[in-house]
TrEMBL record:
It comes from Drosophila virilis (Fruit fly). GO terms for molecular function: glycosyltransferase activity; metal ion binding; nicotinate phosphoribosyltransferase activity. CDD domains: NAPRTase_A. The gene is Dvir\GJ17255. This is Nicotinate phosphoribosyltransferase. Residues 177-428 form the Nicotinate/nicotinamide phosphoribosyltransferase domain. Pathway: Cofactor biosynthesis; NAD(+) biosynthesis; nicotinate D-ribonucleotide from nicotinate: step 1/1. Keywords: Glycosyltransferase, Ligase, Magnesium, Manganese, Metal-binding, Phosphoprotein, Pyridine nucleotide biosynthesis, Transferase. Residues 432-541 form the Nicotinate phosphoribosyltransferase C-terminal domain.
Length: 556
């Protein structure tokens, strides 16, 4: 089952608004008022049939990085598919827009769909770069303008989140598991759901967010909270101590086994039974009885060395007596490098002393305000963590809370449009363009090239002049070994034109696409910028248009 097959669910937030299911919050009124007031003014001024081209792109990569993962496309397509103002939307607009708006405009809005729009996009999950439009829309000016804010909100956070997650994955390495624990800290419920979805896209292995698991078919995982441990203060509180032996089926007293192991472990781990917490022991025994095949315990409630590891090992050995293998521990405070090494050492000692080799392989989960830098630092120090649980800094994108995707008109009725700015970075790339990625013989992406849509695509083995869009002296000849045309038509004549990948396939695409990037573009400190260029033809076109549009000042 994937998210497209899920129908209505809790709270009615995700509703079937059309042929495809989408978060019910995503609807035509989820926009800025100015889109609708502009639509009226366009309509009044007879621009209803003007044909526009808009580019959706960002100007800077997030997190001081040199790449961005494009995500959110499927949601944009669902939005186009279901775009329609309901009667209550129209009634609301009638009350809300300034007085004097002609009735025919509301009739026009009531019949408006996105069926005349064509949407081109880069594949979801692909690495993308500044100024190369990730989505390009063609169609009647009014409708394409009306889509701006909603498309931006669907792409900006999704891409930021997928990029953040991909960066965590890069620093953690491919063998460490990464779990998203951020729902409690996310920017509201919808932010939490998007965070879970797009952190999975970016390379996380699962989420603690149960609704995200249901909606997006993401693996849901988790341990338990400190409250579970602190809810017990003595073994006397245990209402049951019995657990069925996995093989024999005979009921045995798990607490008794654990207490016996505590005595034996005392020498091995150099901890006295008196100094360890009895309440913690009781909590772990009861948790093990509830989940004998999935026993994973939080060990830092009182003291990792003097209590948590000791009690965990006793309960895990007790479970072993009854034929079960515990899974591992979670550490949620203190020096995670030191404590994870200490835990691994303790497990190795127990494995040897009690002849339980699987103890060497127990999973060590670490959490507590982890970010990219913490993981890098832990890697430098050396640690034995198998899995990071990451919440706050992942979902809030601590290092950069927004991706600055923008949506700019680049052509109207076949005439290119340019937005000038004192800040060269902000000058838009005019006209309807195509984008190509040129690869070297070793399979690495060399440069992204924008051309006018009337130009022939670059050809393999043929020299192409690639120019910096604004700095005249910066140019290079590139002989590509492979040329990738970046845009596909995803939406045309009211239909989705591509077979949409599953979330799993988009997640795989992220890793495949990242592999095409040279390591120096991906390193965390001072990465090399990836080159984005324009053809000679487009360069001259931009600069001619710039001169035509820039007013000539007068000095007096
Ligand atoms: N070895 C390490 N190297 C670098 N950073 C670490 C290391 N171990 C833990 N950290 C980070 O240091 C910070 C410690 O934060 P803080 O001082 O609030 O936690 P704590 O005191 O261990 O926890 P608590 O207050 O819940 O007992 C966390 O962000 C954690 O991820
Ligand atoms: O630290 P994060 O990356 O956000 O990961 C999620 C955190 O949420 C939980 O506890 P919570 O923070 O609610 O309480 P605690 O810090 O006091 O354990 C968990 O124990 C983690 O610490
Ligand atoms: O399952 C966990 O361990 C978990 C879930 C959410 C937040 N912190 C931890
Ligand atoms: Mg915390």
């Amino acid at each position: 089952m994937n998210d497209r097959e899920i129908s209505c669910n809790s709270g009615g937030q995700f509703m079937d608004r059309g042929r495809m299911n989408q978060n019910g919050v995503v609807q035509p009124l989820l926009t800025d008022l100015y889109q609708i007031t502009m639509a009226y003014a366009y309509w009044k001024s007879g621009k209803t049939d003007d044909q526009a081209v808009f580019d959706l792109f960002f100007r800077n990569n997030p997190f001081h990085g040199e790449f961005t993962i494009f995500a959110g496309l499927e949601e944009c397509l669902k939005f186009l598919d279901s775009f329609h103002y309901s009667q209550s939307d129209i009634d609301y607009l009638r009350q809300t827009l300034p007085e004097g708006i002609e009735n025919e405009f509301f009739e026009y809005l009531g019949n408006l769909t996105a069926h005349d729009v064509t949407l081109y996009a880069i594949d979801e999950g692909t690495v993308a770069f500044p100024r190369v439009p990730i989505i390009k829309l063609e169609g009647p000016l009014i409708i394409v303008q009306l889509l701006e804010t909603t498309l931006l909100t669907l792409v900006n956070y999704a891409s930021l989140m997928a990029t953040n997650a991909a960066r965590y994955r890069m620093v953690a390495g491919k063998h460490v598991k990464l779990l998203e624990f951020g729902l409690r800290r996310a920017q509201g419920p919808d932010g939490g759901l998007s965070a879970s979805k797009y952190s999975y896209t970016g390379g996380f292995d699962g989420t603690s967010n149960v609704l995200a698991g249901k909606l997006f078919n993401i693996p849901v995982k988790g341990t338990h909270a400190h409250a579970y441990i602190t809810s017990f203060s003595s073994v006397g509180e245990l209402k049951t101590r019995l657990l069925k032996h996995k093989q024999t089926g005979v009921m045995e007293d798990l607490l008794e086994h654990a207490i016996r192991h505590r005595q034996l472990l005392s020498h091995v781990l150099d901890v006295s039974t008196e100094e360890s917490s009895e309440g913690e022991l009781a909590a772990m025994v009861s948790y093990a009885i509830a989940f004998p095949d999935g026993f994973m315990a939080l060990v830092d409630t009182y003291d990792v060395k003097r209590s948590g590891l000791f009690n965990f090992s006793a309960v895990a050995l007790a479970l072993n007596d009854l034929g079960y293998h515990a899974l591992g521990i979670r550490i949620d405070s203190g020096d995670l490098a030191y404590l994870s090494c200490l835990a691994r050492e303790a497990f190795e000692k127990v494995a040897e002393r009690f002849k339980v080799p699987w103890f060497n392989k127990l999973t060590i989960v670490a959490s507590n305000d982890i970010n990219e830098d913490t993981i890098l630092s832990l890697n430098e120090q050396g640690h034995k963590i198998d899995c990071f649980g990451i919440g706050t800094h992942l979902v809030t994108c601590q290092r950069q809370p927004a991706l600055g995707c923008v949506y700019k008109l680049v052509e109207i009725n076949g005439q290119a449009r340019i937005k000038l700015s004192q800040d060269v970075e902000k000058v838009t790339m005019p006209g309807n363009k195509n984008a190509y990625r040129l690869y070297s013989a070793d399979g690495h992406a060399l440069i992204d090239l924008l051309q006018k849509d009337s130009e022939l695509p670059p050809a393999v083995g043929q020299k192409v002049l690639c120019r910096h869009p604004f700095q005249e002296s910066k140019r290079a000849y590139v002989i590509p070994s492979h040329v990738e045309s970046l845009y596909k038509i995803y939406w045309k004549a009211g239909k989705i034109c591509q077979l949409l990948p599953t979330l799993e396939q988009v997640r795989e695409k992220v890793q495949i696409s990242l592999k095409t990037l040279r390591n120096d573009h991906k390193r965390t400190l001072n990465p090399t910028p990836y080159k984005v260029a324009v053809s000679d033809n487009l360069y001259n076109f931009i600069h001619d248009l710039w001169l035509q549009n820039a007013p000539i000042g007068e000095l007096s």
